[in-house]
Design brief:
Blueprint: H1 6-17, E1 22-26, E2 32-36, H2 38-44, H3 64-72, E3 77-81, E4 95-98, H4 101-107, H5 109-112, E5 116-121, E6 131-133, H6 141-147, E7 158-160, H7 168-186, E8 187-197, H8 202-213, E9 218-225, E10 239-246, H9 249-254, E11 260-262, H10 266-279, H11 284-297, H12 304-307, E12 311-312, E13 318-323, H13 357-365, E14 369-370, E15 380-384, E16 390-392, E17 396-398, H14 402-412, H15 423-433, E18 441-444, H16 451-463, E19 468-473, E20 477-480, E21 483-485, H17 486-505, E22 517-523, H18 538-541, H19 554-564, E23 573-578, E24 581-586, E25 591-594, H20 601-608, E26 614-617, H21 625-638, E27 643-646
Parallel strand pairs: 4-19, 4-22, 5-8, 5-18, 9-17, 18-19, 25-26, 26-27
Antiparallel strand pairs: 1-2, 3-22, 6-7, 8-10, 9-10, 11-16, 12-13, 13-15, 14-15, 20-21, 23-24, 24-25
């Protein structure tokens, strides 16, 4: 009935390393449980424990311990499907989750542990006026569980964080800390987190990410110039940042992961080279000056690296020359290289040659080494532009934000979101991180207007990828015609953006996924039927027979089962009729489920003959305990490998 208790998992990990420090204690209800004896643990770590007032390097703030507790405490919640708010519900691989992202991250722990390739977040900026998520940390686990299905007395989930608040930075850090801890669990070993932030919390967020991910896993601090203010007192401002961290940077290095992007103007320059080559009659002496003239005319639109490829050789290909000197002093590459005309050794660079003798001979045979008129000059290396179409992605760029706001306003016919993320910028970084995995899962748990989902769909449409997105957005109220919450805006944006991308792609648009399965964070589907004998009379027993809350559908129960079993929430679902009952067939038989009130022996045998991996029924759907036991026996006879469960 609850999400995993991460504290219990941490105790189990300590037990694996130091079994002698595990003891037993009792909770507030008198139940026995495992716990860590910290005195014994200190002895195990006696050379490394920092205690008391001793100075240490750390990020600390009021509420830090409570925030860490909030990350580990289980919740009695689930995800309920909303078909009416979805697009291609049965087949799409994308998810849109409406609700508190702290709850959503906890619910996703089993199904997506270690499966997310990229997490991109743009959390609320702490400007002194914005709102932040209100998390109640001053409670025990049992109190937290009791409250977990409710909001505050005032019904609000967001609270103002004004500058007058004594915990101006602390409240924001306490909001972010548990969410980042949970997010890190979801990242794959080669996964990456990108967090957008402005100046107000940039320094604190970097220290917080160092705390959660480890400073060694810091990859980049990207600077985005998105606008300027000419009336600013000191500088024109307009800067945002993207802090980028790896789940395991050593693994990325070992796999030789490199983030690249197309060089600006590369395709245009290649086309110009073909034009001047044909116009010159395939004469490199005539083509080169004409080519250089055209390059000067479009220099403002080119990367400097592209502009340097300003010569055309006898094959009609643009190139530039580079030195053949060894780039570092390591190793030895000093040998005589004969000039092809004089036969005498050419002048060698002071550092030695870039290539070994065998590689140098190969480059000469390919026509890639340019010799001078005689041996007194040092030869040069020929580099072709066609081979240099990408470059390392740059950590500093300029992109006006106003264009993104205008594009969203045009798409939605509304200015409900004047500060939206730029789809092009997001697609650029998603592309860089997922170049080696075009079926990657991308998560954004501060989804806002849905820009990340829009960017994933746009990128897939451009390169044929099958990337998936998971978006989480709080049902924060807005005062705009046609929309009651930000989640409503995001869903409508995804619908319109997907339809537009399909229309632009024509027939090819049918091949990529522009749908999303809409889910909502809600209280658990299971009713609280736990009673003591003294508190339960005979008349009350009949009301406790059914452990499912009234109004919950079979599909609601199915998604709770998917969460409990740790299955992907985007698996294909078919709804069939078998023996007159509604049956859910998940992922072509990975799971079959029937939550109808009358489970017959004929239905059980029909499902068992399908030999599914898992089968789930509603416990109250069986007429008696005997019928439930007989169902188990039927599966053991017809499909012994099936895991059978009743809820």
């Amino acid at each position: 009935m609850t999400s995993p208790d991460l504290s219990a998992g941490n105790v189990a990990k300590i037990a694996e390393l130091f079994p002698g420090v595990i003891t037993e204690t009792v909770d507030a209800e008198g139940n026995a449980l495992s716990a860590v004896d910290f005195d014994l643990l200190r002895q195990e770590l006696s050379d490394h424990v920092v205690e008391g007032p001793q100075e240490r390097y750390q990020l600390d703030w009021p509420g830090k311990r409570a925030a860490a507790f909030a990350a580990n405490a289980p919740i009695a919640k689930t995800l309920r499907p909303i078909r009416d708010e979805s697009v291609d519900f049965d087949t799409t691989q994308n998810l849109f989750i409406e609700g508190d992202n702290l709850d959503a991250l906890k619910l996703l722990q089993e199904s997506y542990l270690g499966k997310i390739k990229l997490i991109y977040i743009d959390p609320p900026y702490n400007t002194g006026n914005d709102f932040i998520y209100e998390d109640d940390f001053a409670e025990t686990i049992s109190e937290y569980l009791e409250r977990s299905g409710q909001r505050s007395d005032s019904g609000e989930r967001l609270v103002a964080n004004p500058e007058a608040n004594g915990r101006y930075h602390s409240s924001w850090l306490s909001m972010m800390y548990p969410r980042l801890k949970l997010a890190r669990n979801l990242l794959a070993d080669d996964g990456v987190l990108i967090a957008a932030i402005d100046d107000h919390e940039h320094g604190n967020l970097r220290e917080l990410l160092d705390l959660v991910f480890g400073g060694d896993n810091f990859l980049a601090n990207v600077v985005w110039q998105g606008g300027s203010k000419n009336d600013a007192r000191f500088t024109s401002q307009g800067l945002d940042y993207m802090l980028i961290y790896a789940r395991n940077v050593a693994g990325l290095v070992e796999a030789d992961v490199r983030w690249t992007e197309p060089k600006k103007g590369h395709a245009q320059v290649m086309e110009i080279a073909r034009e001047v080559w044909d116009a010159s009659g395939h004469d490199s002496a005539k083509a080169t000056p004409a080519f250089r003239k055209r390059l000067r005319e479009m220099r403002a639109d080119l990367e400097p690296a592209v502009f340097r490829y300003d010569q055309i050789d006898e094959t009609g290909r643009p190139f530039r020359t580079d030195n053949l000197a060894k780039p570092s002093a390591t190793g030895t590459s000093r040998y005589d290289l004969a000039h092809p005309v004089t036969g005498l050794p050419v002048k060698m660079p002071r550092e030695g040659w870039r290539f070994s003798p065998a590689t140098m001979a190969d480059r000469i045979a390919q026509g890639r080494v340019i010799f001078g008129p005689d041996h007194t000059s040092t030869p040069a290396l020929k580099r072709y532009l066609e081979e240099m179409d990408t470059q390392a992605i740059k950590p500093v760029f300029t992109q006006e934000r106003a264009s993104a706001a205008y594009a969203l306003k045009k798409l939605l016919d509304s200015d409900a979101f004047p500060y939206t993320k730029d789809v092009g910028v997001l697609a650029r970084w998603i592309d860089a991180v997922t170049q080696g995995d075009r079926e990657a899962v991308v998560l954004d748990f501060f989804a806002g207007s849905g820009s990340t989902g829009h960017a994933v769909m746009s990128l897939n449409a451009a390169d044929g990828g099958r990337r998936r997105f998971i978006l989480v957005q709080l049902d924060e109220a807005v005062n705009h015609a046609g929309y009651s919450t930000i989640a409503d805006i995001a869903r409508e944006r995804l619908r319109r953006a997907g339809a537009q991308l399909k229309a632009d792609a024509g027939l090819l648009g049918q091949e990529f996924d522009t749908g999303f399965r809409s889910l909502r964070v809600d209280t658990t589907n299971m009713a609280d039927v736990l009673r003591t004998p003294d508190d339960t009379d005979q008349q009350a027993l009949s009301g406790l027979e059914d452990s499912v809350k009234p109004g919950r559908t079979g599909e609601d129960l199915l998604f709770q089962v998917l969460l409990d079993w740790g299955l992907d929430l985007a698996v294909p679902i078919e709804v069939d009729q078998t023996e007159g009952r509604t049956v859910f067939v998940v992922d072509e038989g990975a799971l079959v489920a029937c939550f109808d009130d009358d489970v017959t022996p004929e239905l059980v045998r029909a499902l068992a003959k399908q030999e599914p991996l898992r089968a789930v029924f509603r416990d109250s759907g069986f007429a008696s305990d005997d019928a439930r036991i007989n169902a188990d026996q039927a599966f053991k006879e017809l499909s012994p490998a099936t895991d059978v469960k009743a809820i």
